[in-house]
Amino acid sequence: MDNVDDAAITAQSGPVAIGGMLRGSSVWDSWRRRFVTDAGRVVDTGNGSFSHSEGQGYGLLLATAAADRPTFDRIFSWTTLNLRIRKDNLTAWRWTGASRDSQDRHNASDGDILIAWALAEAADFWNEPTYLAAARAMTKDITSKLVKPTQTFGAVLMPGAEGFGSKERPDGPVVNLSYWVFPAFYRLAQVEPDFDWYDLMQSGLDLVGRAQFGGSKLPSDWLSLAKSTVSPAQGFEDRFGYDALRIPLYLYWADAVTPERLRVFDAAWRKGPAILRDADADGEALTEPGYQAVAALLRCSCQGARYPESFYRFSENQHYYPATLHILSLVAATMRGGPCLDHGKIEAILSHNWRPRIGALEKLTVSFTPPARPEATVEPAVGYVTPTKIGFTAKDGDMLQDADLFSYLRVIMGALTVLAGLYYLLSRVDNESSEERPEDQTAPGGAGWKPAPGQYDIVPRTLPQNPFSTSTSLSVLADEIETAAAASVRLSRTVGLIYWEFPLLVSYEKAHGAQAVDALIESLAQDFRRALRATDNVAILNRRHFLVSICLLAGRKDLETIASRLTAAARRRDMLEEDAPSLPAGLAIYPLDGYSGLELIESARRRYRELLPEAPENDLNADTSVSQPAAQPEQTRKRSKRRPSGKTHTPQPVA
């Protein structure tokens, strides 16, 4: 195996553009519905429904292949908001829902490479320089922080920026061969041409040949390079495991090796794909279709076997990892082509208009040089308009024609108008709050967040379009909250909900009637609306329950400040008992308290119930539009010992 020469193959390969391959594909629709939330989080259903940079990278790549720009932007926004928490341009490797302060900030190089690759593919496909700028920033940090020279093995890819070096582990450097995303290197060579990607690819191929352990002759997931020979790393299980399953997929996809190099994988899976350990020759069989799809690639490369019927039948009834391997195997098989592929069957999966082409980014670099950090600007929050560059197409010579001069003058005037509008937005004073919005939103419990480095720190006072209508339908309201969240996230902000109930309205209704209560509630709603901004929303649920939606929040502290201000408005209407220090407010903030509108509403309502000092005696509990929390056993319920007020108190009627 050591005498296999892959150099000729790697020298001839190029970056085949992936954009549009899955346009309109039912396979992508199934994968997206199963694993991508409305907020853009890719859910690993096999690992506690957590999310990680690898999954976000796969999601971005597949969204580009599907020409699904709205989903791409949602995934990228969620990734930026929740994983861009380091001081560099790399991403945190995992998200568990923990507070920002306690979140693990270590990165994983495979996830960073996948995200950078997807951004480059998206920049090419949608002709979008901002994606290229983000890809460049990430790729520079990948090459400078994650690639380390070794005396024996050349430049190697570290699994993360910290924790795997020779100074950090006695058996270091420690590497993981599945983190060499070989098909990405061709495209990243266009993003960062000064780096020697060929050398990095060759070191990975060399390690694949050296790391042959046990009877299977397959590499372990984690390898130690501390000595002149490769060995399994300490503290990890010695097995060809779930990580390593991707190695043959990446090798085949990149067309980076000869069939002889892949035969060791094919031979080890003589009974089908499996997790292999030295002590178990047959290993742990993997029956999911996604793992079988990777095995089909190997049989094609090594035996010339055509892909079986099951290869073309994508099933969403499998966990995230095998499902992702399956759809990636379909993409890889299509890119490679050859006699193994049934073109009639694959055409039912792929876009009919897709044709292989070599990707190019030069068209985006001629007149665009991304800064180290993007300048603060205002982006549209709802919808997206692809920037169109002004082209110069003079027919005769290099002289500008009159029509060209007129076009350029119009462009200049338009730019001046935009600058004037930006200056107007920046010069307006935010008189809605007496204190500045704090930049560091790290409230106790990690409820807040701050914009990721390089994101937009100056935002408009309102969203360009109001996502809210006057509908009181819960499903419509939930959809509108999700729209507001997506628009706010694009501006590096978020949305929050405030939920109130007013127990005093029960006695007021008995004394004055339902009509008087309705008038009082509408009057208070108007007070709230006057205290908020135009694209915030005040909804009344079941006549007496208030749900306030706030857009463009910097974090939970912002939401708490607004809740205090609205509580003061309610006090002026005598909606609180005289001895009550404040009114409990149920707060929920996206995405920490929920990803869908319904989740956020239920979270705010639940928080309100938890804060009640004493369960209302006469609560009609009429809010059936929100699912009720599960009833607690009677012995676990505790009532407040706070003395009730000796005075009777009646809300102030409408003037």
From TrEMBL:
GO biological process: cellulose catabolic process
UniProt-listed Enzyme Commission number(s): 3.2.1.4
Molecular-function GO terms, alphabetical: cellulase activity
Domain GGDEF: 493-625
Biased composition (Polar residues): 621-634
Catalyzed chemical reaction(s): Endohydrolysis of (1->4)-beta-D-glucosidic linkages in cellulose, lichenin and cereal beta-D-glucans
Highest taxon above the source species: Bacteria
Pfam families named in the record: Glyco_hydro_8
Matching InterPro entries: 6-hairpin_glycosidase_sf, 6hp_glycosidase-like_sf, GGDEF_dom, Glyco_hydro_8, Nucleotide_cyclase, Rev_trsase/Diguanyl_cyclase
Keywords annotated in UniProt: Carbohydrate metabolism, Cellulose degradation, Glycosidase, Hydrolase, Polysaccharide degradation
UniProt family annotation: Belongs to the glycosyl hydrolase 8 (cellulase D) family.
Protein name from the UniProt record: cellulase
Source species of the chain: Methylocystis parvus
